[in-house]
Predict the 3D structure of the following.
Amino acid sequence: MTQEPEDADARRAVKPVICYPNDSLPEPDLALYARAREAARKVDEVTVAPRDAACFRVKAGQFFRISSVEGPQVGDLNLWNESDLSERFYSGKTRALHGTHLSTKARMWSSFPFVRPMATIVEDTLDWYGFDEFGGGVHDVIGTRCDPYTGNLLKGLQYHYCCHSNLTRALADETGMSLSEAEGHVHDVLNVFMCTGFTRETGQYFMKASPVRPGDHLEFFAEIDLLGALSACPGGDCSSEHSSDAAACYPLLVEVFAPDDGALGEWVSPPVNGYDRSHGR
Ligand SMILES: [Zn+2]
């Protein structure tokens, strides 16, 4: 190991600054959304089977709710612009703007060059959890999604029901794409209900049993027309492993709610990002 410099302690003692202070981001009007939600009626419902995924569609201005129904279960969520799949959820930028774990008021931001809110979290029944003594929190944007390639690297596995494969099959079935084409659209997820963090000593990604229980839910306001896909992770509550059929797994419920006409007043779907894309030329 490299010998530390004489001023090592002083360098370590420098106070951090927030990379992206987010107090200048456009604020979601949560009060407006809440008023619109009051009289909203359910227009669709999709049950995601354990170790499988399903797609759902939500129009801009509607709400969608992901619920735990039979037992503790983690879900891996992908979102696309319904009319242009190249605009998709950008986990890394969302993390940079809102932190490692999302809750009420946080937005799910879309990829370059769109970079606009796709959905806003309007209710989180696990918001009481905060961060535990291990640094764990709920609904992270730090994990990627469980996938068969990493399982193959680490253990030589050929396992087909990781979230990556579940999302790939669901998108292929929904759109008529081939599996290989659909796979290219699957992206890093919002880990709904998953409890994760990084170990203090080694900085390694950890998971622990999710605190979610049946009845808990995470609800979103759709800022643009969305195609969503949700996988019920083969890890179940993710208390032990997530690339096998060993864990107890349960379904997840997705419900879509439409507000009354006019309930959103002057609200308009956010435009794509205002950067002119000239990149210095
Ligand atoms: Zn998974």
Observations:
- The radius of gyration is 20 Å.
- DSSP finds six helices and 13 strands in the chain.
- The pocket of zinc ion is lined by residues 76, 145-146, 162-163, 233, 235, 242 (CB under 6 Å).
- The first helix runs from residue 8 to 12.
